Amino acid sequence: MTKQELFNQIIKKESFLCVGLDADLEKIPDHLLELDDPIFEFNKQIIDATKDYCVAYKPNLAFYESLGVKGWESLQKTMEYIPSDIFTIADAKRGDIGNTSRMYAKTFFEYFNFDSVTVAPYMGNDSVAPFLEFGNKWVILLAATSNIGGLDFQYKKIEGGKRVFEEVLEKSLEWGDEENLMYVVGATRAEMLSDIRAIVPDSFLLVPGVGAQGGSLEEVAKYGMNNTCGLLVNSSRGIIYAGSGIDFASVAKNKSKELQSQMAVQLKQFGLLEK
Amino acid sequence: MTKQELFNQIIKKESFLCVGLDADLEKIPDHLLELDDPIFEFNKQIIDATKDYCVAYKPNLAFYESLGVKGWESLQKTMEYIPSDIFTIADAKRGDIGNTSRMYAKTFFEYFNFDSVTVAPYMGNDSVAPFLEFGNKWVILLAATSNIGGLDFQYKKIEGGKRVFEEVLEKSLEWGDEENLMYVVGATRAEMLSDIRAIVPDSFLLVPGVGAQGGSLEEVAKYGMNNTCGLLVNSSRGIIYAGSGIDFASVAKNKSKELQSQMAVQLKQFGLLEK
Known about the structure:
homodimer; alpha/beta
């Protein structure tokens, strides 16, 4: 999916919501556990319920891998079920030497047909570049993450005054551009978005941490939105585990619809939708 | 496996060799391709041929994941086949927010029963800590990697004069110790090993990059060995793809034996074996 196609979806749905598919056998409703593939059944109902209100789905690979072969199968079925006009993110945080990153890229872009994959920057250029060689596919590079440990290294000042995450952003512009690179920026540090926009004004940012992790949608839009929206705001637990009963999907639907409405307000305020 | 048990194996086998199991359908000998599970068959023969000369096996997760469900099955069978006195490393370069890292830890430590997993440090403490909560299991943290991109961020000087990889080493000592933390340090920068030993004198280091990537075993031993050896030197392609014919396993055996002999010399020189 191209940047323009993604923006078109955002305008059409009046939403920049990404739903995180962190399906966990210990958290999905009990009545699903008797089924042959509870994880896929859960995802299927979540997708049916939320697909009109979101523009992206983000399966978290750890949840599928922890189930071994069965989890891998559930993920494959989930990917086949997601409508093709919805952007897909393999939240996998990969990154290794060149020939290994190439293998990961094949896994996510070819085997599963994801549009994008999250990549950790620590190993530098040749760990990221192989992912950028696939046409119409995206790297979503970790920049300033929302977790407390994000403070350990990402905000260290390096000689010259830049912080590590700023060095990552600047360096990455030598490897790709806003047509194949996005960045992970946590909503818990919304004010950071201005600093990030100073370096990557036109890029999309994947923003986790709204809701459950405490970030505010208004703040994120205020500091992060650009003229192609430039934001994918993720909610996982706040949507998919909002309900725990037989009606979990309709609760998820309401939650995603609620977030979509709030996003429409922000898009209008920014002048991206007709008022 | 404990540090002492690993050291005992090193003394017994007079080797600190780790064999990287990067099984690739495009590189394994043709005659295996007709079999039901060529990847497992390849690994099985490599393990039979090399197990007397190495103390660790390191499957590279990317190679298995790229084959989807079948790759996952091959990995599972491989793990069951590896003798229990050989240390196992999931080379996965994972690292995510706490609840996700916990899922990855369960995958590698419980589902597959690996002794250790490689972890990327970019997301800090809470991305690493969940892996350290498992008894008798290890995190192998990326510090100074052997690839060219390793220079992009790891060697940047931060305020106060330390380099990023030194900050990673120091910070990590707040999270664990030499009984549950090792570090990835590339052999292509062997002289770095002195700087690393200044911070983590007693820890094991996983050293890729000897052979194919150009590092020298003598240099690595000179700068990196300590009184429990403290080194696991990895060779992947240099062993498993040394031969490409029907006799690939015996070629691999000779290559691993050759490395083991060179390692025995280093262990003797350092006074860890009787002369």
